[in-house]
Amino acid sequence: MIFGSLYFPTYSNGLKDIARYLGFEWSDANASGLQSLHWRVEWEFFRDDNLKKRLIRYNAEDCEALERVTHAVAHLCEPSPRREPSANESDHVVDVSLLQRTYPQRFGTVDFAFPELESINRAAYWDYQRSRVYVRTSPRLKKSVKSKSHASVRSYRPNKIVKLLPPRRCPRCKVTEFYKIGCYGKTVHDLRFGRSSIRRWIVKYMSHRYRCLDCKATFWSRQWLSIRGKIGPNVVAYAMYQVIELKLPQQTSALSMRQLFGLDLSKTIVGQLKTKAARIYKPAYDAILTKLSSGHLLHADETKINVAGGSGYVWVFTNLEEVAFYYTETREAEVLQTLFSTFRGVLVSDFYNAYDSMACPQQKCLIHLIRDLNEDLRKQPFNNELSKMVREFSAVMQPIVETIDRFGLKARFLRKHKRDVDRFFSQVANSDFQSEIATSYQRRFQKNRDKLFTFLDFDGIPWNNNNAEHAIKSFALLRNVVRGSSSPKGMREYAILLSICETCKYKGVSFLEFLRSGRRHVSVA
Prior knowledge:
The chain is of the alpha/beta class. Helices cover about 50% and strands about 15% of the residues.
């Protein structure tokens, strides 16, 4: 406890240092554990009564010192949160959670009081100094900066030239007689996947423009009109694989494509590819939400996300096969009513009040409850009421977990524990607790009595929300990459693609192979 929570102004956590700081002194100034060993050896040889008395006195004083340290620690750990420090304590006892740094580190854009300070600060940026200052003193650096400014992506010869067939008839008047009025080309930069390799693959499509002899209309072939953009589908698939599954920043993905394949991509273009992919897979995303709404099990959780210009929340909804992320600007329960108004299965969630608005059976995450109990018990280790409550709750849960480990989540094996559960709730309800924390948990157990052990009555319902917590970890990694630079629209696109990615993982499907396959809905191959 002293090592992890209390910091005395001493050089060590030894009994001698802490007790002397608290005002205790040993009668022998040279007393120490090593010295007592020396006294003991001398007494065994000489049987001197003075040495024996010195040893006994040293051991007794050690006990007195330990008692003083114990009383000091117990006084600081009194359970009442309203405990006021004593007069001699208030000057030298400080709660470390209230300490503030004398010069806190700031991140982000600094708002300067004078424009002159802003211009001076801008002159210290690395890019500014390298391109404006250092080049004036280093000829080699000047040469490298100059060559970099003129660098461009090479133009490569196409690997394949495809000549498109002409249309059969005029799309306006259906006449089969028309003539060519010009030849045009479109170059598509794509990737070609081999068994153990990826290479750049450039295809140039050639087509004529046509004019009808009858109605004089000009037109193209349908194949020509279907070719949109200069980037092929495999580039889109590989870029989304890097950004969504590998959690690479868009700038890093663009740099990787440029260096490895010579593709002229930028962060902006990768963002446009993300928008294109999200639009393509929006129907698959909607199908996942529909399937979750019609299922018998739903895990739910939410987390905060910073976006450009403010903040929002990302919700995760999952079962054992599908995962859906959903972005909202608020944390209100309206999203639950909108998405899952027809859900009648069992909802597994934490103790956030918004989930209570769902008109369906609910299972509260017992892991969250156990963590709360353990944390409060660690804060108040001498609270006998809370300690007894935790011990009784553990005695109920341990046989249940053993049954689940043996037979799985099957109600016919779990119903036998309902008698112990009812006995526990009766003991908690009939107890007359004096401490504030024990009383608060008494109210919490009574409020959620119908939602703590719902899994005993249903097959396949877990007693914790680890499925949602596991799914939201994937978004947390992506959040560390985005770092508040994405807009709400961008976050909705991330939510769509990440839902497809995590659903592929749950179904045992490769996310990259799914993107390359051209399929629009996730299913087990």
